[in-house]
Design a protein that fits this description.
This protein has one domain: Rossmann fold (3-Layer(aba) Sandwich). The relative contact order is 0.23. The protein is of the alpha/beta class.
Amino acid sequence: MINLILLATDGSAAAEHATRYAASLATKYNARVVVLHAFHALPEHLGEPNYSQAMYRTLDQASAVTDKAVAALQAAGITQLESEYVEGSPVDVILNAVNVRRPDVLVLGSRGLGTWKGAILGSVSSAIVQRCECPVLVIK
């Protein structure tokens, strides 16, 4: 039984596709969905007022990413929703959310960079699959 779905999103096309899968699962199982977006920390050496201005822009962008996923889920009829955006490495943020929230399944998108590009650029989905303690549904 699936009662809680954690949807990790970065706002990409793959994440939008993953959102549709999460909506389908939530509808089928009448599950609650938590939308999560991680954003990288800003360098503190920016100084003021540059740091504050950059942080406001970053928070606005993070809010827009989660709001878009929430709107798509609501359009699919999902009413049991939460969203949050957290500063930090996406892998660390997602794994921490899994440890805290204990979802029945984690849903996330993959850009499908392949082995070489993924190794060079880093693959969030690959790292999550290897280290996550709950079932993971990776959508390409």
